Amino acid sequence: MENxxxxxxxxxxxxxxxIAEALLDRGFLRPEQLLxxxxxxxxxxxxxxxxxxxxxxxxxxSDIVVLSVRPEQFRELRINARGKRVISLMAGIPAAAISxxxxxxxxxxxxxxxxxxxxxxxxxxxxxxxxxxxxxxxVQRLFECVGASDELPDEDGxxxxxxxxxxxxxxxxxLQMALTNQAVAAGIPLAIAQRAxxxxxxxxxxxxxxxxxxxxxxxxxxxxGVTAAALxxxxxxxxxxxxxxxxxxxxxxxxxxx
Length: 258
Ligand SMILES: NC(=O)c1ccc[n+]([C@@H]2O[C@H](COP(=O)([O-])OP(=O)(O)OC[C@H]3O[C@@H](n4cnc5c(N)ncnc54)[C@H](OP(=O)(O)O)[C@@H]3O)[C@@H](O)[C@H]2O)c1
Fold this sequence. Notes:
2 domains, eight-stranded mixed sheet, ProC C-terminal domain-like fold, binds NADP nicotinamide-adenine-dinucleotide phosphate, Rossmann fold
């Protein structure tokens, strides 16, 4: 897929634009290798990147087509991608449905998250067709332009991880809100509660970038103090099964289809 032309349908959206910008910034693609389509005709890309109003024209001019529209918008696309590789970023649309609707020869499903914006997405991907070593490496390097990436051996993993890593900042945001609300309920002024909760989620998250969370918990539990009491309370309430049920609820939606 080296030196190929990449077309992104929906390349001006949240995910599509961040990925496209990263591919250019990292030198993965030259501007003339990138095509974008949308309905509004509005784009922030500089000279060289072609913006098209006609999705079929984008498909015809591209070697590889990325689908970065919302799942419900996919049904309105009427494209014939016979002979092309398609990479779908859409949640809840199986590779077989994408092949059937577009005629694409090979479909790759990938599930980035909102952290593409800061180059820190984790992006699992799955190919419904056998890729040779060069093509596999190309897909992997493409998603490494926006963070870390791994190939998955089965498609169900994409649906499961849609509800885990695909949610990006959702779980930390919910934790931060809960910490803030509980502090306010305990009488801490709102602005201080917000700063304290942000310190836990953002500062704590950064510390975990290079540390093992199990070791971190074990060493904090070993103090047998304030932190240990709080963590023990969460463990007694089976925090893992709460998390597990939340992810399964999301994964069921992805598996059922959007
Ligand atoms: N955002 C996330 O955190 C996230 C995480 C994981 C997966 N995803 C998946 O990524 C996909 C894109 O999500 P997003 O958040 O980037 O959505 P978004 O910001 O709404 O972007 C959608 C893009 O598609 C374009 N579009 C819509 N209909 C079109 C059509 N018929 N032809 C051409 N372009 C069209 C829109 O531009 P116009 O309005 O100008 O047409 C826009 O550029 C979704 O399928 C979602 O499941 C998103």
